[in-house]
Every structure is written in C-alpha cells, then in structure tokens.
Amino acid sequence: MIKKRIVAGIVGGLLAGGFFVYTTLEKSEARDAYSAYVKETYQEQPDIELSRDWHMGGFTGEMTLTKEPFAGTYFLEIYSDGSIHDNVLETYWEREAERTIHERLVSRGILKEEETVRAEVPLGVSDDAQANVSPTPTSIFETNPKTYLDVSIMFHEDWNNTDEQKQRILDVIREIESDVYWIHFSFDGKPGGHDDYTERYMMFTRKASDIDPSFLDVRTIEDLNAYDRLYGFDETTFTTEYRFDGTPIEDETTR
Hints:
Radius of gyration: 25 Å
Mean pLDDT: 83
Number of helices: 4
Order of helices and strands: HEEEEHEEHEEHEE
Strand content: 15-25%
Distance between the termini: 72 Å
C-alpha cells in the first residue's frame, strides 16, 4: 500500500511538473509573439501583462502604449488560427467619433457642452483595415462607419414629452445619420447613475426593426408621436416600455 502511494505521488509530481513546464513555455511563447506584434505594429516595446483565458484557452495580454495618438491601455488576444488582435484602432475610433460628433452637435446648438456622446465600434471591425497606420491612423469617417458605428446621446434632462425635446432628437438624427447606423437617446435627470430609475431612452437604426424605427421613418414630430415608445429602468422588471406621456405599455400577452 505504501509503495502504491509512493508511486502515485511520483506520477502525480511528474504530471504536475510537466504541466508547469508546458504552461511556462506556452506563456513565454505568447509573450514573445505579443512583443513582436506590438513592436512591428506600433513601434513600441511595452511590458505585457499576461492572464490565462480559461474560456478560449491560451493567454490574453494587456499593454500600455505611450506614443500619441494611441497612448492608452489595451488588450491583446491570440485567435485559434494564430493571428493576433487588439482593440487599439477600435478605441481610437471611438474616441475620435465621440469628440468630433460632440463638437459638431455643440457647434450647431443642438447639444449642450456638458451633455454626453458615447460611440462604440464592435471588436473586430479593424480586421479589414490596415493596422500599422503610423503616424496618422485612418479616420473612422474614412472607413465605412455606416456599417458599424453606434452612438449614444445623453441629454441631461428628464423626459417631459415636449416638442422641444422631440425636435432635438430629430436634429441629432439629421446631423449624424450619414455617419452611423444606430443611435440611442437617453434622458436622465441624474447623469451617471440609474439608481433613481428615472432614465428614459429610445433607439433608432439605419434599417428599421420590429421595435425600433429607421432614421428615414422619423422625419417630423408627428412621426415621433406615431412611434410613441420609450424604454425605462424599473425597480422590479428592470426594463419597461412606456408611451411618451409616461404611461407603461402593457404586454400584449396579458391583455
């Protein structure tokens, strides 16, 4: 019995040691691959922090670039085909879109300086773009933004169902519809938090869906009134549908 335990312990130790060596080698290879990729693509050699990706396997990396215009912290990932991907361009494009759209709307008198624009570019959209675009990266507006650029506009006010608020929605749509495919409007008397459950929001898309109209469907205040749907946060159901006057829209199945 003692011999069996000794043998089992030796086997277990060998397996554990082998796994440790394999993991260390795999981690070293990932670090080398990331370092070479970053040096070639962004002409920098930052320290790369690795962490095990238990869902996809392998190691993901985190790096901090210091040179403009890409200064910031980003992640790296090795796909199953061995290719390396990062979120540098997506992040740069999002910052660019947020800044330029905000400036455009403020200069037109549509948005207040303190009101917020957020942009989102889904991961992977830079795969078709040239990654090594130094010294000046390709602008999001020179690619194909209508395919993937999402924009959120936060009006720092409660929804009061006024024509002035509806006209602002229309003005934003007309001003940026050629550069985006999806716009999310948010009305919140307490920007930065939903704990008061007062936020109301609505969405418009380049191509109409079952619940959200397209930019072309909404040309006038009357069009908005015909649409007449808001969403809102609720303490119990989290999301509730409302008519513009604040009346909850009943679930058809409960009628």
